Structure formats: structure tokens, C-alpha cells
Amino acid sequence: MSKADAIVEAGKTAVMQNIQGTLELLRKYPPFNQMEQGHLAFLVEHCKLRFYSKGDSIIKPADGPVRYFYIVKQGQVVGERPHSAKRGTETTFEIEAGECFPLAALLGERATRTEHLAGQDTFCFLLSKDAFVQLMARSTPFRDFALRGVSSLLDLVNQQAQRRAVETLGAGHSLDMPLRGLAMRKPVSCLPATPLRAAVKHMHEAQVGSIVIVDEQSRPKGIFTLRDLREIVADTSADLDQPIAALMTQAPFYLAPDASAFDAAIAMTERHIAHVCLVESERLIGVVSERDLFSLQRVDLVHLARTIRHAGRLETLIALRDDIRRLVDHMLAQGASSTQITHIITLLNDHTVCRVIELTIEAHGDPGIPFTWLCFGSEGRREQTLHTDQDNGILFDAQDAEEAQRIRTQLLPLAHHINEALARCGFSLCKGNIMACNPELCLSTTEWRKRFAGFIREATPENLLGSSIYFDLRAVWGPTEGCERLRADLLAWVADNALFQRLMAADSLRHRPPLGRFRDFVVARRGAEKDTLDLKTEGLTPFVDGARLLALANGISEVGTLPRLRALVGKGVVDALDGAAYEEAYQLIQQTRLQLHQTLARADQAFSNRIDPDTLNHLDRRILRESFRQAQRLQTSLTLRYQL
Amino acid sequence: MRFFPWGNRSVTPELTLEQGRRLDSLRALRPREDLDIREGRMVVVDVETTGLNMQKDRVLSIGAVTIEHGAIDLGQCFECTLRREALPGASTLIHGLGPEALADGDEPSDALLAFLDYLGESPLLAFHADFDQRMLTRAFKEDLGYSFQHPFLDIAELAPLLHPDALPPRAGLDDWIAYFGLGVGQRHHASADALVSAELVLMLFNHARRWGTQRYAELGDQCRHWRRSCSAPGF
């Protein structure tokens, strides 16, 4: 019997205890917790355990192609790269217990680009490359993880969120769901010549609220709903035998069946419609109604938007704020993405702002001067959460300075009432007085241009701060042309001024992601904020600032952070993979922030953006850390681009 | 096969022909002491016994872990429970091996042959090595008629030698585990104890290399020296 055979023989019962212990240890972490027992045992049996004292080099570029897959058993591994601009080295990542490295180098059959050092006394499991390859072939979760790295863990988070949603609702239902799956029934349709009476009979029999009028080729020509019928019946002279074509709403709104439930919800909310046709290759294949979308939700987005838009009194709007809060709560529980949620909050807030302006004008009299209500900051970027300050202003047209002064005097009292009314609706008054009732923010187009040009010409700290707020402007109410012209000027000026760009870049580096050298997160050390970090200023702001700067410098007129990133990728300014990583990271931090707000609200605690990372579970914590790492990468790319 | 005794029953324990052949081939092993701790194969062992009396008590289970090329090889762990007459006593509470587990164990001679086979020519390490060494030597003698000569290094000596001011003298395995912040699965299980001892050894070897000590035998000499200086009068 050879020695190896003898070991196998002896090992039949013997290996169990220590292998078992290691299995249990690994099973605390993804992806190992998803792997089959047999595959995990294969992994453990092929592992070596090695110790590295703090500061020891584990792998370095000079070692040549990587030979092992490493799993940290205990301790911490840090990555160090020579600092790009300054002397010395910078920590590019920290790897903790349960995490693995260096996947990219191992799969790419190359040396690592970053030296991996033990940040503390550390034990690592080493799996030989051969065993790693065999395991990839055998275990699907392991292969997914190896090929997609942390992204595959993101799916895990989404799965968890959806599972939670299923638990809440008793059925799988997500706003990401394609519409194809929602429109279960054959669409109810008729030809244009059908008499109204016959069409309504058809609707009644099928028990639906709408009928789509199609031509011989099934191409949708119009839609007729119960709401339309109500109007016709109210008009006693209506002829019930006239063809439906004369009464239908022409050219109905439609989406492709692959569009998501979220797309339909947004379309319904924006357009005040209750039905969306599904069209594939020009043919009608289904209809999705408001009821289909929200059958499982207690608060109905479309209905809510409509109620806001038609609210007759300010008190109604104030009361509706609770419904908005409930809706957000519900969407979050359903696993809606943070982008979807902030988008919906902004949409509903826009409706509220418009209605508040209209009601205020009704109550205090129309000044008779056309004006545009502008919003700035997160509202401008459509990234609002439930806790939001007012950041608004007014733009109007005036011939000269004198007329501008006269109009301002007329508009300011109205602006004041609007700001007050918005405050009563839950939009707290801006501490920095960035509000339309501030004479400095109730300006003519010429005055706004002058103000913006000044920001760019004289980049003082106050002006840089100002540009980070005002340059994210958007028209909420009133004519939009003035606002767009202003933006076009702004883009031209910034693109022309390399110095301003550089100063803006330097300014954006003030908010550093909270990642440190020896602890994974850097948290406040003392005071009430001890052990916490700020998800907004430390996590989101780097992305927001970076995207704004690059967008303005490259003539991109989008205002939201994610649309800006996508446009930058489209223009080739940002690498597609980087763009996707930034987007993912930004969304995750925002999601964590929304969940924090929700938790605080439930516990009746004061609103805050500060979180103690130790309160997160292992997976969330790790993903949050990866997200901060992306913010760090974005900042590093800015330092290179602008040679800071 | 069991009915063919090997040699004189009164002097040498009863072995089957097959066992005898295996033992003969293993007698040729020449345990090595002269190896580099960064490369050579060493075995960290822990035995559980019926008690602490080295004359009377018996080995119940053996757990061992291999260190080779400076790493613990999880594919080369050894563990066995020896079939013994049930002697439920106080130590059952410590080692956790109940009469059933012991009755399920391997024939002691088979278990020891397997262990010797696993060990090969590798030198050993153990925490309070004197105890493990004596218990194993007696078991080898009684159950196999084999004179166990493999060298041992005592981790309980190595640790204070390399970290003189870390802990008070005569600190136990638990103290060192706590001092180095090691995680441990199930203490007082031969395998788990061997593994955590082996982790401790990796840490100590890492330290020893910084001192410039790279050979197993050299560490043995230093331990002996350390032991003498400890027992020196007035020390």
C-alpha cells in the first residue's frame, strides 16, 4: 500500500472532524453557503492553510502567474499599489475573513497587479489552481462567483430583497417584472367601425375597463375607457350607435412587452392614463391596466399622483404626504431599486409642487407674469428621498434690469407663500435660504446667466459650493425653454474653462469615501456620531460630484447622476465597465440609505444619514464596502484626469 | 486472519500476518530530525487518553495534522478512535468519547499502524509533548511491540521560548490560543486540538524564521537550553 493510499484509507473516518470544522466555518460566507456539501468538502480537502504575519507579502506582481486561490480564514489582507500621483503606496482594497482573492489574475492566468500584504496576523486557505479549475467545472454557485465576483453577490442581495417581498405580499411581484407577464388575458379589441353600443357590450362581457380599437392588421389605432364612457353618458344627446372611432382617444400610449412594470407605472403617473397597450411588431398583444400593476399594492402610485394633481385644498396635499410615505415603504419592502424609489418620490414631489403653486396662485391671485419654478440639488437630479429640503428658485423674462426689479417685487410675495405652503407639505425650509422667496434666487434669465457666469469665472469656495447645488437645475413648473437655454450656456462655459473644471475636481475630492488602511471602514471616533459614517456625504456625494463635473465638462445636459454616467459611457468619457460598476455602487449606497431612513422612521428615531457599519449583516457590509471602493476609484480617476 | 498469531503472545502482542508485514516495512523508517521548517514534512499530534496517569492510562484517540512546505495540508489530516474496553471515568467529561464511540473505534493495532504509516519519517510536534510522546510510546510497545523513536518538539516550550514575556510560565494551550486570537472548532477533540496546535506552530515558525532559526533540530536544541535555564537554581 502506498503512503497516499494509506492516508486515504486512514482518512475515511479521520478527515471528517477538521474538514467538518472548516466546512462550517466557510459556510458562514457567500458563495460557500450556496455550494453543495460535496463540492465544499472537495474544496476543503484540497486546501492548504498558511499563516502570514502582519506586513508579510502574500503575493506580488513579481511572483509571476498566480498559482493559488486564496480565502481569508482569519485576519485581513490589504492591497497596495504604488501611489499614482504622490510618492509611497495607497491601499486599494482590504479583504476580510471569508473573502477571496485574486480572482481576476487567477482567471486571467497572469500575475497580480497589486501586492497583497497581511494587514494583520492572517491565516489563508490556499486552493491550488488545478483544484480551483475542477471546482469551477463542478459547482455552479462557485463558478458564478469566480466569474462575476462581487456582482454575483449583488444578485444574492436582490434575491434576498425579493424573497422579503414575497414574504410581505404572499406572491412574487416586482416592479422589474416584464409587462409580458402581467398582461395575462387576451386584449379586448374591436374595429374602428364598431358602434359604441356594441363596443361597450363587449367590454361589459369581458369585464374590462378599456377596449383597444385596432385595424385589420391588429395595429392599435385608439383606446376607449370607462372614463370616456362616463363623459358620453353625461352628455344626454350622445348617439350610442355612432362608430367608436369618433369617440376613442387616438394613438394610444404603448410599450414593448419587455418593458418593466416600473416603466408602465411611470408612464401612467406622468401621463395620467390608466391603461398601457403592449405592442410587439406593431401588433397589439395585450393591455396592462393600473389595476394589473397595483393589484398587490395597498397604495396605488397612479391613483396617488392623480389625487395630488387634483387636490382642491392644501390640507389634502398635506394629508397625502402620509400616503407617499406608505408607498415608499411598500416599494422598498417589495425590493424596488433605490433609483426607482427616488424617481417616484421626485415624480410625486413634482406633482405636489405644481399643485401647491397652482393652489397658491388661486388663493393669492395670479400676478399675471409668466415664470418658471426651478429646483436645484437632489430635486433637480430626481434623487430625492422622503427627507428633503427645499432647494428652489424662480426664473422669468425681463427686458432690462429695471423691469427685472419690478417683476421680482411682484413675484416675491407669491414665492414666499409657495415656500410656506411647501413647508407645510413636509418640504422643510432650506437652512441655507436656497428658496424662491430669496431675492437673489428670483431672477430674470439675464440675471441667472450673470450669476452662473460669475460662479465659473471666480471659483471661490462659496461659488464652488453654489455650483454644486445650482448647476443641477431643472424646471418643475412653467415654461421650460428659459431653463434649457441657461443650461446650454452653462455647458458651453464649463467646457471652455479648464481651470474651473480643475478646481471643481479638487473640490469634489473633499468628500472622501470612508475607507481606511487598517479597519475596513473609517468611522467617526467621538461624539454622538461615534462609530458611524455618513452614507450621503461620504458615500453618494463622490459619485454625484464626479458625474456632475464630467457631464458639465463634456457637454452632457442630463441632470441625474445615473443618466449622466450613462451618457458619459455613451460618449466614451467613462469606460463601460467602470460606468456599470459606479452605477451599481451608487444604487447600493442609496438603497442602504433608504433602508436606514425606513428603520429610523419605524423606531421613531430622528432622521439621519449616519450608519454604524457594525449593525449590517456580513453580506451588506461587504457590498457597502465594495461600493465605497468604487467611489474611491472614481475619485482616483479624477485625480489622474485633472492631474491633482 | 486473526487466528494466526504473530510471534510469542506473552512477549509480543497478537498481530495478524498482514499487520506483521506492514509493521516490518515500517520498522525500516528512519525518523528525520534534520529538516528545514520551511520545507520539510512535520506532524502535529494530539492524543486523548483515559486519564493523566502515564503509567496506567491508555490512548483513546489520535488526531494529527501535517505541516509541509510551511503550510497545513487539510487533505492530510489524520484521526482515529481506538477500540477500548469501556472505562467511563472522569476523563469522559473532558475528551467526550463515550463508551459507544470507543466500541466503534478501530482495533488499536490497526489504528497505530495506520498512524505510523501516516507519520512516515516525519518528526512530531505536540503541546506538552512529553505526555503525548510517552502515551504513544507505551501504546506502540503494548499494542504493536514497536519501539517508537520519532523525535518530538514541545509547543509548550517553543511558544515561551519565542515569546518570552507574553504569558506567565506554564501557560496552557487555551492561554496561547487566546493570546494569539486563534479560532478553534471543538476543544478537547484530538483532531481539533491538533489543528489549532498546528496553527500555533505556523505562527511560531513564522516568528522563528525572523530570528534566523530554520531547522527543526535547532529549535529542539534551543528548547532544551531554555528548559535547563528555567530549572536552573535561582531562576
From TrEMBL, chain A:
What sequence ranges are listed for the domain Cyclic nucleotide-binding?
Answer: 31-136
Q: Which GO terms describe its molecular function?
A: [protein-PII] uridylyltransferase activity
| Protein's UniProt keywords contain Ribonucleoprotein | no
Give the record's keywords alphabetically.
CBS domain
The CBS domain sits at 183-240, 248-306
Q: Which CDD domains match?
A: CAP_ED, NT_GlnE_GlnD_like
Under Gene3D superfamilies, the record lists:
CBS-domain, Jelly Rolls
The protein's matches in PROSITE patterns, at most eight in alphabetical order, are given as:
CBS (PS51371), CNMP_BINDING_3 (PS50042)
Q: Which SMART domains match?
A: CBS
Indicate whether Flavoprotein appears among the record's keywords.
no
This chain's protein is named Cyclic nucleotide-binding protein
UniProtKB/TrEMBL annotation, chain B:
Which intervals hold domain Exonuclease?
41-210
* Matches recorded under InterPro entries: Ribonucl_H (IPR013520), RNaseH-like_sf (IPR012337), RNaseH_sf (IPR036397)
One GO MF annotation is: 3'-5' exonuclease activity
List this protein's GO terms for biological process: DNA metabolic process
Presence of the UniProt keyword Nuclease in the record: yes
Per the record, its GO cellular-component terms are: cytosol
Spell out the CDD domains in the cross-references: DEDDh
Q: What domain of life does the UniProt record list for this protein's source?
A: Bacteria
Q: Which UniProt keywords apply?
A: Exonuclease, Hydrolase, Nuclease
**Classification via PANTHER family:** DNA POLYMERASE III SUBUNIT EPSILON, PROTEIN NEN2
What this protein is called in its record is: DNA polymerase III subunit epsilon
Q: Which organism is it from?
A: Pseudomonas matsuisoli
Lineage of the organism: Bacteria, Pseudomonadati, Pseudomonadota, Gammaproteobacteria, Pseudomonadales
